[in-house]
């Protein structure tokens, strides 16, 4: 786990009377951003037995009538702990869980919410992608993490879906759900809390960790980042890494543009795919987590994209 997780302020671990959750473990470390907004930090590495697959950030926002959870975690056990922590720390029952992207680290804890009858909300494209491919994700995660770590985990497709941006007031607190098209995934959602000027950006933004372009529409991602940067913002909660200021949005855009420029020049200059991937270093981001793992994959994705454009495929 990253070092900043230890900084989180966790309130009393005593469940309030009337909450339905039954604690099975100590609450997860949480970072209190003020105004009823909390982050549950996850690892910035790839999923592994060492981090139990608990990669990327979850969070929750407490309203006068209930709590909204953002992302459900990497397994049933992780989802249970997210749910219990949200209710223990926030002091209100969880009334909805929002999925920002159809990524395994954000959705595999959903069974813990479904068994409590808590609705799962996602963009309609994200729900389709979860239905289409996440059984494969579950099998792969189980092989990686083991049967015990994934016990009770199952794919749950969100039934509450939306086609675009909208406002919700679940729990008595108005939140803006923002969809700016296909960016990091087909079903990106960002959650904006106007009362604290806090943005949960999901996988659209990483702080100190290389973003992954595997499922991306690169132009759409850059357009989404520009739209998010126009919001009045005090704090950005990235999908990976610590909460940050507004400039975290621009940093991700800069990485994508810089990598794209470098790869395009190599591809147009006649470099092979292998040569381009080897030569496409962007040294100012070399200290970001997973640079050695994700940056070559990103360079390959961009090379093939530019090659397809060139040949009209």
Topology:
Blueprint: E1 31-34, E2 37-40, E3 58-62, E4 67-70, H1 76-90, E5 94-98, H2 104-107, H3 110-114, E6 120-123, H4 124-145, E7 160-162, E8 166-168, E9 175-178, E10 190-193, E11 198-206, H5 218-229, E12 235-240, H6 247-268, H7 273-279, H8 291-310
Parallel strand pairs: 4-5, 5-6, 6-7, 11-12
Antiparallel strand pairs: 1-2, 2-3, 3-4, 8-9, 9-10, 10-11
Helix pairs in contact: 5-6, 6-8, 7-8
CATH domain topology: Metallo-beta-lactamase, Chain A
**SSE string, helices as H and strands as E:** EEEEHEHHEHEEEEEHEHHH
- Assembly classification: single chain
Q: Cα distance, first to last residue?
A: 42 Å
What are the low-pLDDT stretches, counting only 5+ consecutive residues below 50?
1-24
Corresponding CATH architecture: 4-Layer Sandwich
Based on CA atoms alone, the radius of gyration comes out at 19 Å
- Main sheet attributes: strand count, strand direction, barrel closure: 7 strands, mixed
Strand order of the largest sheet: 1-2-3-4-5-6-7
Measured as a percent range, the helix fraction is: 25-40%
């Amino acid at each position: 786990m990253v070092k900043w997780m230890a900084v989180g302020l966790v309130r009393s671990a005593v469940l309030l009377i009337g909450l339905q959750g039954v604690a099975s473990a100590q609450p997860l470390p949480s970072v209190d951003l003020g105004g009823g907004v909390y982050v549950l930090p996850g690892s910035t590495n790839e999923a592994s037995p060492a981090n139990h697959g608990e990669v990327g950030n979850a969070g929750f926002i407490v309203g006068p009538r209930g709590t909204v959870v953002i992302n459900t975690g990497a397994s049933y056990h992780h989802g249970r702990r997210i749910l219990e922590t949200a209710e223990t720390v926030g002091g209100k029952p969880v009334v909805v869980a929002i999925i920002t992207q159809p990524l395994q680290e954000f959705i595999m804890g959903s069974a813990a919410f479904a068994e409590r009858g808590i609705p799962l909300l996602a963009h309609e494209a994200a729900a389709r992608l979860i239905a289409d491919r996440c059984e494969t994700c579950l099998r792969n995660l189980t092989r990686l993490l083991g049967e015990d770590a994934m016990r009770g985990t199952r794919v749950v497709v969100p039934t509450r879906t939306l086609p675009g941006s909208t406002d919700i007031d679940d729990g008595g607190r108005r939140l803006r759900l923002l969809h700016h098209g296909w960016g990091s995934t087909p079903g990106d959602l960002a959650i904006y809390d106007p009362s604290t000027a806090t943005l949960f950006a999901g996988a659209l933004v990483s702080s100190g960790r290389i973003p992954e372009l595997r499922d991306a529409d690169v132009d759409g991602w850059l357009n989404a980042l520009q739209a998010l940067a126009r919001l009045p913002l005090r704090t950005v909660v990235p999908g990976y890494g610590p909460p940050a200021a507004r400039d975290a949005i621009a940093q991700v855009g800069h990485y994508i543009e810089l990598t794209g420029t470098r790869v395009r020049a190599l591809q147009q200059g006649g470099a092979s795919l292998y040569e381009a991937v080897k030569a496409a270093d962007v040294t100012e981001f070399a200290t970001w987590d997973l640079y050695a793992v994700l940056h070559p994959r990103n360079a390959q994705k961009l090379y093939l994209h530019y090659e397809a454009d060139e040949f009209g495929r």
